[in-house]
Amino acid sequence: MVTTVAFDADQTLLDTRRAIEAATLELCAQVARQYPGSPALEVADLHADAVAAWEAMPERDVRTVRSIALARSLGRVGLGHAHGELSEYYFAARQRLTHPYADAVSALSQLGERFVLGYATNGNSRAELCGLAGRFAFELYAHERGLAPKPAPEFYAAVLAAAGVVTGPEQVVYVGDSWSHDVVPARAAGLRTVWVNRGGSTVPDPGVADAVVVSLADLPAAVRSLAA
Ligand SMILES: [Mg+2]
């Protein structure tokens, strides 16, 4: 019996990519306003520094990685001394500009009538700051209180513990957009899985996900069919 539906956050419920692009532009504008004498902060450099930081430290938490990348970008334009203040500006903008996808809120409302809902992310998008306050019975953030990030089995064990599973892991459905971080390890931990395939990519291995949806509008029906 399915009792619980737990969600990945970024690019599943939240359009984080768009928020990062918008927050990056806001940071560049803020630097131009606040430090008119310094060289312009370039979007391309911010992007390149973020990619390089991720490649150098994929195991670190996203805030740390972004902070290190911002330090590098600000150093390029002689603003390393303003890193603390400007990184706080960026992180505040990033949270404020992160919104649920248009199809997310309705799906959560429908599913919330019948199932316990959970939020379990590797990222730092706080549900309450991103338009999803009060939606979830539990929220898990990797790297907080020692929680290992996905795809670690410990992450999914924590999801099951937070869900209070009684009969077994199959009573939890995990919904996410990442095949390698959401679908494959959740299934390995015994959960049911739904792959959110917004881009309509080819399903890597048809036997692994219990359901595939291209929109969260299709999610309530997909979960109901798993729960039947
Ligand atoms: Mg994701």
UniProtKB/TrEMBL annotation:
Q: Does the UniProt entry include the keyword Membrane?
A: no
**Where does the record locate the signal sequence feature?**
none
Protein name, please?
HAD family hydrolase
Keywords, A to Z?
A: Hydrolase, Magnesium
* Pfam families to which the protein is assigned, alphabetical: Hydrolase
A molecular function (GO) term: hydrolase activity
Q: Which organism is it from?
A: Pilimelia columellifera subsp. columellifera
Q: Write down the required cofactor(s).
A: Mg(2+)
PANTHER family recorded for this chain?
A: 5-AMINO-6-(5-PHOSPHO-D-RIBITYLAMINO)URACIL PHOSPHATASE YIGB, N-ACYLNEURAMINATE-9-PHOSPHATASE
